[in-house]
Amino acid sequence: MPLTTLRIPTADGQADAFAAFPDRGGRHPGVLMYPDGFGIRPVLRDMARELAEHGYYVLVPNPFHRHGPAPVVELPAHIGEEDRPAVFARLMPLIEAHTAERVRGDAEAYLGFLAAQPEVDAGPVGVTGYCIGGLYAMRTAAAHPARVAAVAAFHAPVGVDGPGLFAPLTAQVHLGHAEGDMTPEALDELHRTLDAAGVGYTSEVYPGTVHGFTMPDTDAFSAPGLKRHWDRLLPLLDRTLTRRE
Questions:
Q1: What pTM was computed for the model?
Q2: What CA–CA distance (Å, rounded) separates 9 from 15?
Q3: DSSP letters along the chain, please?
Q4: Among residues of the chain, what percentage have pLDDT more than 70?
Q5: Domain boundary assignment for the chain
Q6: Which of 48, 77, 84, 163 is 20 to 30 Å from the Cα of 36, by its Cα?
């Protein structure tokens, strides 16, 4: 399974990234995968490879490229609860600096890169993201409704932008929430907002999970939660993205 290191031109310099894609030749639907706040690291490469094995060209950018190449912040091999305060003290300024405007500008570069690759199908793309990366995925889909056919966000703060985030969406949406991230009242309010915007979506709380459940290198990891994530993500991409292999 090829894994290619990349430099993608953006309005604010070169963004480091990597791509995973099938090694059998042909063209494959493109998927833009945003990391969680901890950024690019071995578990993201493993997840990208797994998705690529299902027939997708998967692009994973470093959202915080303005602050240096990944890893922008040094991380332990396993991010335990005792590590989180110190790590987030260094990460939060980067997350706060990565404004919605910057997300949209970078997304234009990433989608343009996908469109230019000979391995990528000419049809619409999918976007997925984790934690803050899920919010970036939603912002990307909202900014590029003609280009994004599917968007999925897992344990992501998708409500922080308010109802205006959902109004432009034409993509099919899946939201996978951790138990600790959404009260029943907040979930009901989110669903009312999505319904009012006319979004086609599925949205559910994954049982027995906490924030960050998809990431095997953290204490939050849930193997059943990660499996449920694949069980939702793969059918979403399969039914919305055109295959030309």
A1: 0.96
A2: 6
A3: --EEEEEEEETTEEEEEEEE--SS-S-B-EEEEE--TT-S-HHHHHHHHHHHTTT-EEEEE-TTGGG-SSPSS---SSB-TTTHHHHHHHHHHHHHHS-HHHHHHHHHHHHHHHHH-TTB-SS-EEEEEETHHHHHHHHHHHH-TTTEEEEEEES--TTTT-GGGTTT--SEEEEEEETTT--HHHHHHHHHHHHHHT--EEEEEETT--TTTT-TTBTT--HHHHHHHHHHHHHHHHHHS----
A4: 98
A5: 3-240
A6: 163
At the topology level, CATH places domain 3-240 in: Rossmann fold (3.40.50)
CA 4, 240, 140, 198: dihedral to nearest 10 degrees?
Answer: -170
The predicted-structure confidence for 80-116, as pLDDT tens digits, reads as follows 999 999 999 999 999 999 999 999 999 999 999 999 9
pLDDT digit string, tens, across residues 41-84 = 999 999 999 999 999 999 999 999 999 999 999 999 999 999 99
CA 149 to chain centre: 14
